[in-house]
Amino acid sequence: MVPPPPTNKPHVCLSTILIMSSMALIDAYLVEQNHGPRKIGICIMVMVGDICFLIVLRYVAVWVGAEVRTAKRGYAMILWFLYIFVLEIKVYFVYQNYKADRKSLDALARKALTLLLSICIPVLFVVLVAIDHMEYVRAFKKREEIRNRLFWVVVDLLDILDIQANLWEPQKKGLPLWAEGLMFFYCYILLLVLPCVSLSEISMQGINIVPHKMLLYPILSLVTINIITLFIRGGNMILYRDARVSGILIGKNILAIILKTCSFVQYRRQLQNASPAFGVELQKNSVNGGVNPGVVHVNIHDPQDAGRAQRTHLISTGT
């Protein structure tokens, strides 16, 4: 096995502490929900599971810390997938225990579980992205645009967790069993996949990050979060008279649909206007298929990079 490059130790320690502390708190919920001899058995099971998880985390976190200053986020995707996969399984058992014991109306503990997830999961995503360590993104404007896009990812994560939290927070009338299971596992899949898509967009572009070309995540989130969750909340509010549906997040989804649609239309217009003009410029540079020694031939898809290359050529030729 190839030894990992030098790691960012503070980054490794921060991500490990965040992951293991959130796991330990969910384990505390599982242990406290059981009584008698079963409580001891659950305690042993979660301890063994956490030790095995810590062994795997020891190797994955080192590689995540090694790639934090690079353009790659492959191991960050693996760590995110592993963390959410294990954490949500534990959350599922906590939710089922609350559902089985409907007499337990400890609203404070249930809301504390929601608060725990809404803090740990988005913070871990921000740590794995590590935008402040992206030294290869030199332009301040590009870095701020990436930070704004990641802010939307964090808001989407909170949107998903809000829907999932409706399952274990106290409610007067429960949803049908099939609806509860469908909602939980739909949110489970979104938490697994969508942040990995955002990390892969950063990784695939390498050091030449062009934020306005990172369109895969906005398209997926528009469909899977802003549109579908709007129907989920509307159905809960209309069909089941669920008073806990967040009107603020419904407004967020409507606003996001409008903003993202306008952004897609604007980007497509800019792409159509820029491509023909730059294509004519490239055709003028080629004469009968030969190469003019005084002309720089480039293949650039970004209009800003095209203008930069043209200015560099004018300076070098003294014109």
Automatic annotation (TrEMBL):
Keywords: Membrane, Transmembrane, Transmembrane helix. The chain crosses the membrane at residues 12-30, 42-62, 74-93, 113-131, 175-194, 214-232. The keyword Transmembrane applies. It holds the Pfam family CECR6_TMEM121. InterPro entries: CECR6/TMEM121, TMEM121. The keyword Nuclease does not apply. Belongs to the TMEM121 family. This is Transmembrane protein 121. It comes from Sparus aurata. The lineage of its organism: Eukaryota, Metazoa, Chordata, Craniata, Vertebrata.
